[in-house]
Amino acid sequence: MDSRGRPRYVLEQIAERYPIVMHGVSLSIGSTEPLDFDYLRKLKALAVDVNPRWISDHICWTGVAGRNTHDLLPIPFTEESLNHVVERLRIVQDFLERRVVMGNPSSYVTFASSTMDEWQFVARMANEADCGLLLDVNNVYVSCFNHAMDPRKFIASLPHDRVVQFHLAGHSNYSTHLIDTHDDHVVGPVWELYRFAREITGGVSTLLEWDAKIPPFPVLHAEVLKARKVVADGAGLASTGPASSVANGDLVVEQVAAAAPVPHPLHHVLPEVG
């Protein structure tokens, strides 16, 4: 957000030609720390410059005592926590003068104090805060595997008219648990969940994330085309390509797949993003 010079020039050139969305990891909406209005001012200024279709972040907290871990840390799913998150979302949306879009993170631990399922929390949060939802299909699969939950029930229980975007990514399987690493191909069960999610939501835009061990572009593009195939014919797709086919890289690459031209329920924009 603080970049100027050539990085900002390049971003502005892209924004003139293509639709832009903003996706962050530092809103820390679940934290008990005061909201960071310095961060929010910078976020708002960037949004003014690039005119994004939406701004998204995660239902989590990322730090305490002024320190940002840049990790998506889980929150307890309680009435107190829900009221806290909803109130903060209302303040953030008022400040930014736009609805925000909140995504479900992957999680590896749960709280004994939770009194509702994650999907109940997410659904109530979206409706009470009047925000959009980013449905990260891979994160649903990872969290449900780790906590023995039903991923289809998770997706089916969300308010589908609030879903703005799908995220897809690869993860690492350690037999007893999955880690959301964004460094490999999307696996078959996640493709099947994606097909199911598209069927029940009517289809919105799709983002494929591959953030580490980034492969040559043709490998990444082939993965994006799988999403396009799901969009085109509704068929489930199996994962292809071994991890050994992935080359090392240190750039963050996110590729957007095409989606059916259904007007977005919150912003009335077409979901296809090239």
Report on the structure:
- This protein is an alpha/beta fold and 274 residues long.
- It has a single domain, classed as Divalent-metal-dependent TIM barrel enzymes (TIM Barrel, Alpha-Beta Barrel).
- The chain is built from eight helices and eleven strands.
- It has a seven-stranded mixed sheet with strand order 1-2-5-6-7-10-11. Strands 3-4 form a two-stranded antiparallel sheet. The chain has a two-stranded antiparallel sheet with strand order 8-9.
- Strand 1, helix 2 (37-50) and strand 2 (55-58) form a beta-alpha-beta unit.
- Helix 3 packs parallel to helix 4.
- It is globular, with a radius of gyration of 18 Å.
- It starts with a helix and ends in a 17-residue tail after the last strand.
- The model is unreliable at 235-274 (pLDDT under 50).
